[in-house]
Amino acid sequence: MKMMQKKLRSLIYAGVGLILCVLLCGGIGMTAQAAKEKTYNGFTYEDHGYGIVITGYKGSKTELVIPEKIAGKKVVQIGYRAFENCVDLVSITIPEGVTTIDMYAFSYCKKLSRVSLPENLTNIETCAFEGCKSLTGITLPESLTHIGIWAFASCYSLTNITIPKNIQRIGNNAFSYSGLKSVILEEGITKIDDQAFEGCKNLVSITIPDSVTSIGYNNFTDSVGNISLGSIICNKGSFAYKYAKERNIAIKLMPGPAKKGTTLTVSSKKLKVKVTSSFRKNPTVTVTKFTDNKAKNLTIPSTVKVNGVTYKVTAISDKAFKGNKKLTTVAIGSNVTKIGKEAFSGCKNLKKITVTAGKLKTIGKNAFKGINKKATITVKGTKKAKTALKKQLKKKSIGYVKTWKIK
User: Fold this and answer.
1) Alpha carbon distances (Å) from 107 to 153, 154, 169
2) Which residues pair with 277 in a beta bridge?
3) Same domain as 191, residue 139
């Protein structure tokens, strides 16, 4: 009863905010002509001009891949209650281009265990995945800026979550009564709202960075208000450290980064990296080697985690992948600022490269010399940043040939 009252109160606040938004915007929903619902391969959708909004599914498949485009237009949103109570849905892949998962979009999909989110997703709205009791894990992209209230509440099988830095604040009851055992908050998050982790009775530890300066009431408590958290992992002197002290919660100090120049192995990514900065608040590494000699696909992530420490991947070393004839696809993370000399030279079967514009400023001599002559390089980012990087990629000094496709 207590939980239901709190939820109703939170949802009333959200509803009032939504009504005010509509009124302030001049009643857009009441004055604009409603988009006509259509069907494509079992998916129902609406064309809103700015893109396609998926509104539901009428097919019988239990493992779904939402198309990137419908009728020549990008899918940009999973709509309000689109898949709510799809009780047989087991997995869903959401394509690049989707920026918003609307309220209740997947709520109470009780068999949903696997969700693949796009790298440019920014919003997960109220109750989007509430009651998905089979959901065992989900990777939240770095682009995410908003998690709505009750978004992952009552996800009983969800045991681990890493919340990326751009979210800044975690909404009321966002993960309440879930099965979480371990939570990692990235540096940049500033606020944990009221009851965000209430009722997470299995929570062993939560890592809270120095950037967090506010933790709302009834966090880390059971249904009767008793502390149920095992420990807080934080830095001495931080807000989280003082918070834990005041509530007699066990404290574990964050491990420090390795010394500059240390070579580390990232087993999960099959990479070797070298520490380039051991500054506690912003440790960085450069990628030096790919340890899987048979792999065709390589992903250089934005960050790597080794021995409990998260490092930004800011560079690819000289000759890091030189002569690797197995590689066909490479995705380069958004934190990379430099690609070293001859980094991919001689990778003759490398046909597909994805890179993010913005931070990447330096591409070394012959970095891509000798890759496949029909290679496609996809550049992501803002229009201005993409234009600048495309210009750099067309320099002969890096190995450019006219048969490459740069888009």
Assistant:
1) 10, 10, 22
2) 284
3) yes
Let me know: does 110 contact 134? Beta carbons within 8 Å: yes
DSSP letters, 219-236, are: TTB-TTS-B---EEEE-T
Helices (H), 96-160: none
Domain boundary among 197, 228, 253: 253
Question: Three-class SS of residue 96?
Answer: coil
pLDDT tens-digit profile of 46-80?
A: 999 999 999 999 999 999 999 999 999 999 999 99
| Domain boundaries, position 227 | 33-253
Same domain, 137 and 282: no
Distances in Å between the Cα of 292 and the Cα atoms of 267, 296, 304, 337, 367 are: 10, 9, 17, 24, 20
Q: Which amino acid is at 33?
A: Q
Does this model's pTM top 0.90? My answer is: no
Tell me what pLDDT residue 224 has. 77
Domain end residue (candidates: 208, 235, 253): 253
Instruction: Walk across the sheet containing 405-406 and list its strands.
Output: 297-300, 329-332, 352-356, 376-380, 405-406
Is the residue at 236 inside a domain? yes
